UniProtKB/TrEMBL annotation:
InterPro entries: Cyclin-like_dom, Cyclin-like_sf, Cyclin/Ssn8, Cyclin_C_2
Ranges where the Cyclin-like domain occurs: 13-92
One of the record's GO molecular function terms: cyclin-dependent protein serine/threonine kinase regulator activity
Organism: Medioppia subpectinata
Alphabetically ordered keywords of this record: Cyclin
Residue stretches in coiled coil: none
Gene Ontology terms describing biological process: regulation of transcription by RNA polymerase II
Pfam family membership, one: Cyclin_C_2
Protein name: Cyclin-like domain-containing protein
SUPFAM superfamilies: Cyclin-like
Length: 122
């Protein structure tokens, strides 16, 4: 048996620290928070640093709420390619959700699953 411990740092604290100095944070923060929650349905939290995930979610929230913070993002000393890569991962998740047809996909998946073997009681 393996005995291990996984420590995972969440992007919520960096998100709050970044948005602290912003105007209109009442509209951007809930959207960014929801994007962070959605990002947990991917492996992003295992691949990228929490501050990068927070920035990507802020970027997406700015686009969704149509706020212009390009100057603020430009002043950051970060790798914007990583932020855009994280954004693409989350957008791929949303695209998958949009195209997923539950009535068509689930029966095919259930047919592939192994059936439990029933034991008769004596």
């Amino acid at each position: 048996m393996m005995d291990c411990c996984l420590v995972l740092y969440h992007p919520y604290r960096p998100l709050l620290q970044y948005i602290h100095e912003w105007n209109n944070k009442e509209t951007i923060l809930p959207t960014a928070w929801n994007v962070v929650n959605d990002s947990y349905r991917t492996d992003i939290c295992l691949l990228y640093a929490p501050h990068q995930i927070a920035l990507a979610c802020l970027h997406m929230a700015c686009v969704i709420t149509q706020r212009d913070y390009k100057q603020w993002f430009a002043e950051l000393n970060i790798d914007l390619d990583k932020i855009l890569e994280i954004t693409r991962h989350i957008l791929n998740l949303y695209e998958l959700w949009k195209n997923f047809d539950e009535k068509k996909e689930i029966p095919a998946l259930l047919a592939k699953m192994p059936k439990p073997k029933c034991q008769t009681s004596r």
